[in-house]
Batch of 2 targets.
Target 1
Amino acid sequence: MSNATQLLQSIPIDPLTGALAVPIYQTSTYVQEAPGVNKGYDYSRTNNPTRETLEKIAAQLENGSIGAAFASGLAAIDAVVKLLKTGDEIIAVDDIYGGAYRLFTQVYEQYGITVKFVDASDPENIFNAITEKTKLIWIETPTNPTLKIADIKAIANIAKAHRCLLCVDNTFASPALQKPLSLGADIVMHSATKYLGGHSDVIAGLVIIKDETLGARIKFFQNACGAVLAPFDSWLIIRGIETLYLRIKQHCINAQAVAEYLETHPAVDKVFYPGLKSHPNHDTAKKQQKGFGGVVSFSLKEDNLKLAEKFVSNTNIFKLAESLGGVKSLISHPANMTHKSIPAEKRRAAGVSDSLIRLSVGIEEVEDLINDLEKTF
Ligand SMILES: *Cc1c(COP(=O)(O)O)cnc(C)c1O
């Protein structure tokens, strides 16, 4: 059975009524037959049928055994970091999502958990950074906004040899393109706000784990700390996931065409897209991904803030907004938006130049998207 068929088949039909759509169990509590005797649900922070259905679908989609749904991607990251204790060390990808950077450095460093940032596009850098204190390797691939690729299998081997956990933030690729658990990762994390939800209408996070003991610890933190995903929001993510393969197919086709168009434009300096042969990690991306995703970044020959600012303010179809992964195309200017809090020199060193523009390429007709860019130059 193909992936898309399997996914749709995995969404259960309600045994009580035959409802084809997953019911929304908007309840906090459940009536018990006798004290402690219940149908598997006693309180919705601990377990809720709608959220449970999403967690099962997500676990299957990522080839894992346990899924846990959280109120945001950051709450999902937070649950993973809680596996660590004082004195432990994290090695994280250097162009990590800004919110994860803030959580690691401004929250967890207070508790004596330290973090080292390395360029994960060369696994050797991770190998060299490991000490006996390293308990968690945290990577994103592709990264934001320069779309660097890390070799998941190679890094999983390093993690195994040093008995530390590998967690992959799989938000950018989505499970339609990349399944890190099958490449040796221990944990997969998603900002389901992006491609899984797919419609820019909900904030949600997921953690998926292969090992059941480790999974039980994440489920424990989910209940003990309480940042659970609400029933209606769980339903929105299920509904989004139903069209995941179809949407991602179109995101990939559109992004490839946009990237190829940009590469030939005289005003463009560099184009960052793993689907281009000119991308330094194109071969690794090809090896571990079924497609190259919907995010494309580019810089202008005239590398100046004002010019990029003008560009992102003048497109029509591409709407100026943070976030990504929805059906509608978005445009952003990292230097002035997502990466504004990073000192300019540090930001530039990470490859985020003043004129870098990031596109979240949607599922509109690609000719219209290219025309929108063409008339903005
Ligand atoms: C958006 C995002 C997050 C954070 O998720 P929220 O749902 O916004 O909390 C984490 N990682 C990546 C790669 C993201 O794009």
Target 2
Amino acid sequence: MWLKFKRDWEEPESAVTPEALFKQRRNIIKGFGVAGAASLLPATGQAASWFGGDDEEPAAIVRRALNKTDIPPLHNDALTPEAKAISHNNFYEFGTAKDDPVKNSRQFNPNPWSFTIDGLVEKPLTLDLDDVMAKMALEQRIYRLRCVEAWSMVIPWVGFSLSDLLKQVKPLSSARYVAFETLYDPEQMPGQKSRFVGGGINYPYVEGLRLDEAMNPLSFMAVGMYGKTLPAQNGAPLRLVLPWKYGFKSIKSIVRIRFTDVEPPTTWNILSPHEYGFYANVNPKVDHPRWSQASERRIDDAGLLGRKRIDTEMFNGYGEQVAHLYKNMDLTRYF
Ligand SMILES: Nc1nc2c(c(=O)[nH]1)N[C@H]1C(S)=C(S)[C@@H](COP(=O)(O)O)O[C@H]1N2
Ligand SMILES: [Mo]
């Protein structure tokens, strides 16, 4: 698997590549996606570095982003206590109970991590996450997270705008959707080894967005939360955060991003198509076949999980930012 590629490849490269070419290539990669340079970049399987001379630890990079944001909090919500956000999780790769992910991910090692961006793009890339973190403008975003199971949290994420990443690979004009894939590694993820532990999902977990949804300024790639790098159970080291959609769209531990011209298959839709649609926009007027979506239990600091029941808002309260994406669509049909 490519997870091991960086270490194996970095040294041989500097050893066998003539120095001038090596330097030139590093400069080109620094420019990240500069036209003409792309042909020198490896396709898939090798981690492309774009060193900015920044050797900071990921934890320090995340901390430094805390007082920066392009999008200030859009609501006056109290944060969910960190202890709850990192212990009440859905991450079926580690088991289906809410406390399984924290218990079963202790051995999970997300370092080093690389991920691929390919499909309908000018040049596919495999990127090393440490380099991406050093290069991207990291910021903190406070977002609501509304699970389709009718509980919700308010979480301070640290990361970067998804569009800033996607723009770099120059999608082809034929690209209309973006597909995402979680790591497949049954040795580290017990839910992938056993259908009983993993809830009957056919792994790897996959998700998708229409291109205009992916490019919306709210679409966010998180590498941290509460001022720290992401814990394994919350999707280390890199996960999507889409605050106007049900939580299952916010796919964790991403290893591949692929541009396509057809709507990509998505895990929960495959599992139960009449209950979980491709769009999965938070919508208090479209109930889940087995329960109401009109209200939700906000997990706050009251009691063990928080007892406050509040009304669910259309698009989870982000309508001003995203409603235009769906203006001619019947959202009862495209749920
Ligand atoms: N790979 C993967 N991503 C996933 C899930 C999962 O089981 N596997 N669960 C989803 C669901 S249902 C929710 S509500 C959120 C939960 O994120 P959190 O545990 O960080 O609160 O992650 C989403 N991303
Ligand atoms: Mo969820």
